[in-house]
From TrEMBL, chains A, B:
Residues 652-677 are annotated as: Disordered. SUPFAM superfamilies: 2Fe-2S ferredoxin-like. One of its GO terms (molecular function) is iron-sulfur cluster binding. Residues 8-112 form the 2Fe-2S ferredoxin-type domain. InterPro entries: 2Fe-2S_ferredoxin-like_sf (IPR036010), 2Fe-2S_ferredoxin-type (IPR001041), Beta-grasp_dom_sf (IPR012675), Corrinoid_activation_enz (IPR052911), Raco-like_middle (IPR041414), Raco-like_middle_sf (IPR042259), RACo_C (IPR027980), RACo_linker (IPR040506). Pfam families: Fer2, RACo_C_ter, RACo_linker, Raco_middle. PROSITE patterns: 2FE2S_FER_2. It comes from the Bacteria. This is DUF4445 domain-containing protein.
Amino acid sequence: MAGNGKRARVVFQPSGRRGEFPIGTPLLDAARSLGVYVESVCGGRGICGRCQVSVSEGRFAKEKIDSAADHLGPATEAELRYATLRDLARDRRLSCQATIEGDLVVDVPVDAQTNRQVVRKRAENVDVTPDSAITLVTARVAEPDMETPLGDADRLRRALAAAADLPRLALDPPLLAGMQKLLREANWQVTAAIWQDDDAPPRVVALWPGEKQHVYGLAVDIGSTTIAAHLCDLQSGRTVTSAGTSNPQIRFGEDLMSRVSYIQMNPEKLPDLVRTVREAVNALIAKLVADIGAQRSDVLDAVIVGNPIMHHLFLGIDPTELGGAPFALAVSEAVHTTATDLGLELNPGARAYLLPCIAGHVGADAAAATLSVRPFDSDAMTLLVDIGTNAEIVLGDRHRLLAASSPTGPAFEGAEISCGQRAAPGAIERIRIDPETLEPRYKVIGLDQWSDDPEFAEVRDQVGVTGLCGSGIIEAVAELYLAGVVTSDGLIDGALAEKSPRIVQKGRTFAYVIADDDVELTIRQTDIRAIQLAKAALYAGVKLLLDKLGEPEIQRIRLAGAFGSYIDTKYAMVLGLIPDCDLSEVTSVGNAAGTGARLALLSRVQRRRIEQVVRDIEKIETALEPRFQEHFVNAMAFPNKRDPFPKLRAAVALPEQKTAEPQAGPDGDRRRRRRRG
Amino acid sequence: MAGNGKRARVVFQPSGRRGEFPIGTPLLDAARSLGVYVESVCGGRGICGRCQVSVSEGRFAKEKIDSAADHLGPATEAELRYATLRDLARDRRLSCQATIEGDLVVDVPVDAQTNRQVVRKRAENVDVTPDSAITLVTARVAEPDMETPLGDADRLRRALAAAADLPRLALDPPLLAGMQKLLREANWQVTAAIWQDDDAPPRVVALWPGEKQHVYGLAVDIGSTTIAAHLCDLQSGRTVTSAGTSNPQIRFGEDLMSRVSYIQMNPEKLPDLVRTVREAVNALIAKLVADIGAQRSDVLDAVIVGNPIMHHLFLGIDPTELGGAPFALAVSEAVHTTATDLGLELNPGARAYLLPCIAGHVGADAAAATLSVRPFDSDAMTLLVDIGTNAEIVLGDRHRLLAASSPTGPAFEGAEISCGQRAAPGAIERIRIDPETLEPRYKVIGLDQWSDDPEFAEVRDQVGVTGLCGSGIIEAVAELYLAGVVTSDGLIDGALAEKSPRIVQKGRTFAYVIADDDVELTIRQTDIRAIQLAKAALYAGVKLLLDKLGEPEIQRIRLAGAFGSYIDTKYAMVLGLIPDCDLSEVTSVGNAAGTGARLALLSRVQRRRIEQVVRDIEKIETALEPRFQEHFVNAMAFPNKRDPFPKLRAAVALPEQKTAEPQAGPDGDRRRRRRRG
């Protein structure tokens, strides 16, 4: 084995970045320390599979490296599980799992960063034929002729129009300044980027001497906490690199509404909020182009998606109107603008496109997710849910599509939960509760072993057990319900305190103790209440849309966004976050908004499609619907007071309907519940 | 009579500017000292008639002024002459002639500043139906509705599209930022400026609350020495105010080629040349909008014309390619751009349009002059000449149109002439030479009296007699030729030294002494030679075009530009600057380029027309034409060695063909000339 004993040399391709690392360093860590972007959305747990890399074997003279696949440590349990459950190609490794054991040349495949989405897209057949708004055309321009004194720009346009078979072609005036020198230095052979979208006449927006093979487009999903950006080759349609960062606007307010409040209180700070997010995107652009050895001027188009407030702020629009009824969007249809107008540091001729917003609470990100999931092309009644502080809900099929949002609040993100925390090492992400003993076993982020593993005690202190992340909370509440600790009304059954020391009284209610080592981790009555409120809001929103459609059977459920990617769909259904459906038809679609942004970046057909879909989509304002409250009250129960969830019951043994004192609902409800109980 | 003895109060309307002035101050001087723009192109000589004003009579309580028409001094000789020759309305005075004799409220009529052009336009029937690229549309926008969550911008676009009967309407994205506030403050009633030109889809480019009545457009003619700008009401088509300034690029080079050389030597200074001319235009804009009490944001469109080098520099393009063969224009077709891209401080949504350039030496100014004179609509064979350092020549009729330029050099502008000077007080502008006595009488700029007037000696020292301006030189040489002092070959006949002391020997040649008081003012052989070279170049260019057209008879001649406005067309023809033509059909058209710019500003039909005309016009590169030299040699003679000028001879008694030793031309020419002599 090569290597120099304690440290090994690693070169990442195609970026060519290199460094020396201690033996045993996970490849992902090494990549990150060199600024090589490898996507990973599961926090290095070997779940998401996006961090795949391969080893280039052999002797690399230039690099002075003997690289071999076995210079990586053996596959971990997580990696073997991933390889079994998904399809990990033979030469691929998960860089979060594989450790450096010798000198290596590592290839970061351009598709690896979006591997899961590629798989998903293939599965759902949303291959895109590249048809971007930017076309590259190479042409030989006629030299100047005193007898026919047509300007250089005019001869250029004629040559390009002929080469591109366009009847007419405009030219961005700022190109005129440098054009004469460029034409002469290029000996009259140039490549132009021609932009055409919608009903705009085609325009030359950039010029290069000679032949130019690749230009790129940027797809950005601006979330309230994170920003994800992808660089795509506009000709091949391939995603060549991706990067993410946190949204620095967070310092003006943790969540959306607090940012709107901040602007209402400090209207003069609006430019700061706008600048700060644009700067973050510019930093991502710098990272992306450096990753592939390209330049900013190689990026000719950008697609931006985000929720309405992020969308407005990115456009420089004061989002105050979105802070209160009637939640008036400044603009709902797609926006065609220039990168310069958005402060994006790309090619000076680069264009930008923002997908349409569906409604005041259902943004361009929801439109992009819809474009990615394509319910409008499906015969299957599809529910698409993106869960955040607001749940954005799209329901329908090729015949009819509805959209709404429900104010779920931040409980699903671990906020308002007594021992909630963000998904980070030490957070419980999975939990099982034995229905007999009521004892828990759990798994924390950062450790492979479950808590009942004999080795757990040894490794435990590496990360500690610090709290419950969103998926951990969902599983904990669902397992408590399945174990009979929590009634379908959401009450912790105090009578069980006699059976298990894990049930303890806290004031006038009871709590369930998961752990009591570093810190006491308990599920309290208030935590369950917070989950009930959040999931009832989500479910009530779905029900409203189902009402409008005549209560059809839901055939597919797609969960989008970070939360949707991590929760176990079974537990989500056990709690009644989502309606009854064949569990095999409930899947996560990851960052569907980012995928939709890329589709719009790569294809004008997709832009026109989503513009029309958003025009046609029926927007339901949940606050205006009289039945919302009724659905909400019913949805407080697990899984639901009214809806029977037969498909779920066929797959999961739900506890007998056991009720404690009801905490909400009119008398009639209480009577019915007792009768059913 | 009112007034306070030594000083009088004067208020200029509509600007409302006021001041006190010594009795006897010319109104034009008073206006200028207050920054009230009154056009005057003849240097205050009562010739151009553009400085017309009227007196508002009566008691003006607010102004504390008793204003009466007779508070102006009596009409001067120049004013009476103007009133007789042109049509000066009863209530109008020439402000360069009228002196302040008491308190006054003076009205500067909006049409006065372009009076002459209005007259001319009426005469040549180029009334324009306003059809500008900017339309104002007022609409009531539907308020936001949660059930139909269309964005404010989308409802705005729908309301405007309905009001303007447009199927589709885009909106400039930068408008989004302020739109929501504006809509609410305007209570949903707004006026939009909609821009549409060529094949661009219509766009909302500006918004105002409520109703907006007037928006303006800017027409600018950028000359190498002066910049003229007009503000036009885009709805009515009226020119509401005008202003001019010198081109500050002059500090980088007096003439065009010296500026190109400067950039070639100092390429890093290009941005300075660009900025300096744009700043000058911005200063004019400030003056124009202040004049009418408007704001920069009321100006929505701009049309810019200039010769190719001025045109390129204004666009920020390095004009180096225009400095040498093949004189490649960066762009020849019309340029559609934005005011912002040109650094113009207008409404942020304002557009800009540059007329097409015809060829490397025949610019957008020539295109504009062509649009103004409209030979392409005429059955009359028309010659349009704009004389500067280059003479731009357009010849043809509705069937066929040709264009060329000839390098006349700066002689016509008084440069390269021993006693030449710019048109300024003290310059001889007119001269007559008695064919018998050979004694001259002349008139200088700034004095009414001719030099043979008994009063002349008294007033002479007010301005002195300092040199000859362009028109003075033309008249002097022509009168010397008519008086037989100069032969048709351009030689001063030394034999006449015996007859008159005004013919004196200077080295190996002779000179004619006009005056010998303050300074000796003489026409030397070299001066005549310079005029011959310049006029021969011009005439040879015209002849080339005539050749191409089969030597048709010229039915109309139009002289454009400052020089063309001041020279006496008879003398121009006597010297053979211009070809033979009925003298009544030879007229000056003033700043035809500025008029053409206004036509393009006010009418898209005119834009499309001149674009097509310029595409179709046949461009002749004089340097490539083998017959140029032959025509040039023939044109060295007065009026011409070959062409007989029968119409001129019918109107003016030309001297018998008297030759001295020829100075140029092949032997064959000499023989023929002798045979004819």
